[in-house]
Design goal:
about 325 residues, eight-stranded mixed sheet, alpha/beta
């Protein structure tokens, strides 16, 4: 980190003031005892974490820039490598109906499996392994989270956020039991782009999720490098598994700002549960997109439509 100061020491100063059917080839740190083996390090291996299904030769990195074929096994390049760490209000995730008024230790790494031109965290989400990071083991992160929970303003647990946390799948699986053992919560702020089998392994370890529903048209998702069906399945499976789920839709002019799209989206969410909170958020120019900000009148109009079907609809960035 800048000035040679570590993430943990920086946080200490801050807080004083405040899908496929293929076999899963996932593992965690390089010495993980359950790491699957392959006959040849030169063979191409398919990453089965998300629908991109990147087929990687030896040493190659996937679309997300965070997973690679290392010795014939798909490995995480960002395991325990943190770019960002802060104690945030839980509402900032945003989670308005999960322990409101609380704070949560929020951590990010690098990489993303979408390519949104309006990305708000592009400096880390679009980065690769060359970005400056600090190594923080699951035990270190859990210990810090517990320490923060014992002093004002308190800490609910850990939110994996800022970049796409699903790319740190193994790190989350290794950290979550340590957090739960001390009564802390595990939160994901995610684009929901993950295959069904790894999601099924992950959900029992997750207490709350804010899932981006970026648009309600398959064509729109394809332009972002994603898949609408996958994200809808992630939302539905998380709700079914009893995870606290809130959904965010960033309204971008010309992409997802039609009344018909919001009507369809809100109806679908309500079919899962009318209690699902929906955050309708205002876009501002970021990254590679210079379209003017979403008019507040558009946010108000779409919020009114969504409230016909959902009990908890919130305006964001207004």
């Amino acid at each position: 980190m800048s000035g040679g100061r570590g993430v943990l020491s920086v946080l200490g100063r801050q807080t004083k003031g405040c899908c496929t059917n293929q076999k899963i080839t996932l593992c965690s740190s390089p010495d993980h005892k359950n790491a699957p083996l392959h006959n040849s390090a030169d063979a191409r291996v398919t990453c089965t974490l998300c629908p991109h299904a990147c087929r990687l030769g030896a040493g190659e990195t996937g679309f997300c820039r965070a997973r690679e074929n290392r010795g014939g096994v798909i490995r995480s390049k960002n395991y325990g490598r943190l770019t960002s760490l802060a104690l945030d209000p839980i509402e900032k995730k945003p989670l308005y109906h999960f322990h409101p008024g609380g704070f949560i230790l929020s951590v990010g790494s690098f990489g993303c499996n979408l390519a949104c031109p309006f990305c708000q965290n592009a400096s880390i989400a679009m980065a690769d392994a060359s970005i400056e990071t600090e190594n923080v083991s699951p035990a270190q992160l859990a210990a810090l989270a517990e320490e923060l929970s014992r002093r004002p303003p308190g800490n609910l647990g850990v939110a994996f956020t800022y970049n796409e946390p699903l790319l740190s799948y193994e790190y989350i699986l290794d950290t979550a039991p340590l957090l739960h053992a001390t009564g802390l919560r595990v939160v994901l702020v995610t684009n929901g782009t993950i295959c069904a089998e790894p999601l099924a392994h992950l959900l029992p370890h997750i207490d709350a999720m804010n899932i981006d529903l970026k648009c309600f048209r398959e064509g729109g998702y394809r332009r972002l490098g994603g898949d609408l069906v996958t994200v809808k399945e992630t939302i539905a499976r998380a709700v079914l598994c009893g995870v606290h789920v809130e959904v965010t839709s960033l309204i971008v002019p010309g992409m997802n700002d039609s009344a018909a799209d919001m009507e369809e989206e809100a109806r679908w969410l309500a079919s899962l549960s009318p209690e699902i909170p929906l955050h309708i958020s205002r876009y501002f120019p970021r990254h590679r997109m210079n379209t003017p900000p979403t008019p507040i009148s558009t946010i108000d109009r779409l919020t009114e439509i969504a409230r016909r079907h959902l009990h908890h609809v919130h305006r964001g960035n207004c």
